[in-house]
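// run 5 | inverse folding | seed 20
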């Protein structure tokens, strides 16, 4: 591959995005196909979790590592044990998904590949269409795996250990399921109005789930064949993302839920100025003013960078809808593409580099990425100062 396309593919795999510069993955050699699959399986769970499962790390170190990867888990006991449990759950779901898809008649390699990329919410496929090419039942299995990937591993552990109340009382999970149901209905109505007589319920449900879980997997209905309002609906879902602590990217539902609670509190105080300010909670957790500030800053930075990135696409002649959709897809680590092959694969190298940056920002999240760049700058500055001091000492002697 050309170097820029190879970089694009690697960054897309390791950031769990799923945008690809390979027009037909079926033509890849077996070794490259396996390597491409392995990258997404590891990136979906998170490299940090594998590190936790191999060696003992303190809870403080674990929190720092997860924040650097754009994730957060509340570790308070045996961190290594928690890492092993999560890796075991992840491997178990992968194995189960592979067996079910294989039992449905899909060749073993394709079954393994689509189980991995659905659960990891990475979205790579072994063909140019996606899992939908194998029929309705495999598509349903893939959707279940995407939803599993969009739910935090802590919630999975609670469900599998019999703590069903804790699982269902998670407000993010309930919101996720409601959003999937509502968005499926909206997308079905949109497709019905576009093509009367065609009930695209399966494709609508597939795209609703693949967008909100940021999987980005495709099906037999190409997005380039859908109306603009279908694409706009998906774009809003791509902004959301799924449950915090899952394999998904984007803003995450908990931030949007906090935003909704803040708006509701503001409206309530507008009509009841003397009322006491309502405490904002997420489940049993109180959201402090410091946390609210972090949420606002992150969402503002996320949207600002997305809009700025979309503008560069428009300046180079891309439609506003395609520009926004592509940038949101990259920064949300989704991987969906609404452009035709000529426009997408003919993208200038500069825009490919820009999308790589968006992928990194989405995966590591913006503030950790800023701290990382700042630390690199300070390191270079200290090195230059040290070399200057040594040079002056040498010349003085």
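// decoded
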């Amino acid at each position: 591959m050309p170097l820029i396309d190879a970089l694009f593919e690697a960054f897309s795999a390791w950031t769990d995005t799923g945008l690809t510069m390979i027009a037909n993955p079926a033509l890849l050699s077996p070794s490259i196909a396996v390597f491409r699959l392995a990258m997404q399986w590891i990136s979906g769970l998170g490299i940090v979790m594998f590190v936790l499962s191999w060696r003992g790390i303190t809870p403080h170190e674990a929190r720092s590592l997860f924040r650097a990867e754009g994730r957060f888990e509340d570790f308070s006991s045996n961190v290594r044990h928690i890492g092993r449990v999560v890796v075991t759950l992840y491997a178990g779901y992968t194995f189960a998904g592979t067996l079910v898809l294989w039992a449905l008649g899909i060749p073993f390699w394709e079954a393994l590949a689509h189980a991995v990329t659905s659960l990891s919410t990475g979205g790579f496929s072994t063909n140019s269409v996606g899992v939908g090419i194998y029929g309705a039942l495999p598509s349903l299995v893939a959707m279940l795996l995407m939803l599993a990937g969009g739910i935090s591993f802590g919630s999975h552990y609670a469900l599998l250990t019999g703590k069903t109340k804790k699982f269902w009382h998670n407000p993010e999970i309930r919101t996720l399921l409601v959003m999937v149901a509502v968005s499926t209905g909206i997308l079905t109505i949109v497709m019905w109005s576009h093509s009367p007589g065609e009930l695209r319920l399966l494709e609508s449900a597939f795209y609703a789930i693949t967008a909100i879980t940021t999987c980005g997997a495709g099906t037999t209905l190409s997005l380039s064949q859908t109306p603009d309002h279908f694409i706009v609906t998906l774009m809003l879902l791509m902004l959301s993302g799924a449950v915090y602590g899952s394999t998904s990217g984007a803003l995450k539902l908990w931030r949007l839920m906090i935003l909704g609670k803040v708006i509701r509190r503001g409206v309530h105080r507008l009509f009841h100025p003397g009322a006491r300010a309502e405490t904002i909670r997420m489940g049993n957790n109180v959201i402090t003013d410091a946390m609210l500030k972090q949420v606002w800053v992150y969402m503002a930075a996320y949207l600002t960078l997305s809009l700025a990135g979309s503008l560069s696409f428009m300046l180079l002649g891309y439609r506003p809808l395609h520009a926004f959709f592509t940038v949101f897809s990259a920064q949300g680590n989704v991987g969906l593409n609404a452009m035709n092959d000529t426009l997408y694969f003919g993208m200038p190298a500069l825009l490919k580099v820009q999308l790589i940056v968006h992928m990194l920002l989405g995966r590591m999240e913006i503030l950790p990425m800023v701290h990382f760049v700042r630390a690199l700058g300070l390191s270079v500055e200290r090195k230059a100062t040290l070399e200057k001091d040594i040079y002056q000492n040498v010349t003085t002697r």
